[in-house]
Amino acid sequence: MNLPNPSTHDKALAINLHPAQYGTFAEIGAGQEVARWFFHVGGAAATVARSISAYDMAMSTATYGPTARYVSRQRLQAMLEYEFQLLLTQLDGVRGERSTFFVFANTVAARSYSHQEDGHGWLGVRFQTHPREAPSDLLIHVRLLERDNLREQEALGILGVNLLYAAFHYYQEPDVLIRSLLDGLTRDRAEIDVIQCTGPAFAGVDNRLLSLQLVEQQLTDAAMFTVDGEVVQPSEILYKRPILIERGSFRPPTNLTLDLLACALERFRHEPQVQEESPVVLLEMTLRNLTTDRGVDHTDFLARVDLLRAVGQNVLISNFGRYFRLVDYLASYTQKPIGIAVGVPSLREIFDAEYYKDLPGGRLESFGRLFKNAVKVYVYPSRDPTSRAVTTVETLEVERQFRHLKAFLLENHYVEQLDNYNQSYLPIVTRNVLTKIQTGDPAWEALVPPRIAQLIIQHKLFGYQPTREH
Helix, strand or coil for residue 28? Predict the structure, then answer.
């Protein structure tokens, strides 16, 4: 049953009518909203081996083992493992040759009388595409944005049906799989900020590209990767932590790129509210920095992520064009200080009126929103390639009517000049380094960290052209 635009009802019924798909529904924390769809549409006896709601924490622990957090990726994985092994133990002998077993599981903190915050949870499917094949996993993290508990539960049920249907029908088409997850829903009802695929059904699939597509297809505003290459739910890393972030294209990361970050981090660590903490450091790329005339170049994106990992950095990919939107996002996870590391050219852009034409309050509104939280901007100087004059935040020229605003920001230490920089890095301009890489000019190698140069040469990144020395 392959309909061009299947509804939630169509999807659940298609799975129920499939002669091989057979499995378990295990749901914690928000009732059995997903299983209900399969019983509701009819034919569930041919599909549902078992349906369980371990709603009580003690029952959940007794069934799936102890856990530090009941709404977590670890709990979801324990549920999938337990229930799938139970299916194999009890049913493989009698129907393993003709069945593709699956387990759908979720663990959700939904809106309730005692929990008035947005709901969120982990949903996952462990499934076989052929009988007795090794299973594959498809996991997502969702934020439920409804203000009404019943509509939140409804959204969860639709999401679960979409996820199970996508696992069986779209596992070979990752972009279609992602696009289908919000079928029957709108972005203001739910946000999916993590997706993770493993197993033989997803051989060759890179989870980082899937996360990028979540942002591209507007299922979320941002996705995060750790230095280990792991796709993570942002709260796992950012919750109640001081955060320092640097935005850029990183094509490639240069000596100046990393010196800017190091100088800002040294200053950030000495802030009174940060001294006893271990700050999270992020390098952020926006979709604007990844988009060409042909769209987003996925190979190029992976190259940049791999280079940043090679120099020990976590990566955030987002669709935040303006800095205050980035700050709003980070502040949703922490009330601790947020530091932003920028160069003079980026600060000049922040002051540019063209950047805020569509805001009713223009630049004043943008600065108010940027600095309403515990935010500090650290500014690295720049050098004019012609006059060789160095511009700092103090000497940066702004429009006359905004000179008092600039003075206010400096006097109140919302914006601070970085003085601990390496002067030899000031002539470095990323686009010029890229040109040298692409034209075979060996001078570029001295402008990037040695490990970055090694990887660019080894993998021929960014249109690298070898020189006689290579």
Answer: strand
If DSSP codes are grouped into helix, strand and coil, which group holds residue 318? strand
Any alpha helices (H) in 332-426, and if so which ranges?
Answer: 344-350, 362-370, 403-411
Token duo for residue 434? 């890229």
Q: Is 39 helix (H, G, I), strand (E, B) or coil?
A: helix
For 436, the enclosing helix (H) or strand (E) is helix 430-439
What are the tens digits of pLDDT across the range 13-42?
999 999 999 999 999 977 789 999 999 999
Instruction: State the amino acid at position 244 in one-letter form.
Output: L
Please tell me the class of the 8-220 domain.
Answer: alpha beta
The fold of 236-425 is Rossmann fold (3.40.50)
Helix (H) or strand (E) holding 90: helix 73-95
Residues of the chain with CATH 3.40.50: 236-425
Q: Using CA atoms, how far apart are residues 272 and 297, in angstroms rounded to an integer?
A: 42
C-alpha distance from residue 249 to each of 80, 244, 253, 302, 445 (Å): 39, 17, 8, 13, 18
Q: How far is CA 119 from CA 77, 158, 431, in A?
A: 20, 15, 43
Cβ-contact 14, 1 below 8 angstroms: yes
CA distance 257 to 449: 10
Query: 104: which strand partners?
Result: 25, 125
pTM: 0.90
User: pLDDT tens, 264-296?
Assistant: 999 999 999 998 889 999 999 998 888 877 788
- Tally of CA atoms within 13 A in the half-sphere of 388 that contains its CB: 2
* Tokens matching residue 181: 């997850």
- Tell me how far CA of residue 65 lies from CA of 59, 71, 74, 440, in angstroms: 9, 14, 11, 58
Are the C-beta atoms of residues 28 and 52 closer than 8 Å to each other?
Answer: no
Delimiting residues of CATH 3.90.950.20 domain(s) in the chain: 8-220
* SS3 state at 411: helix
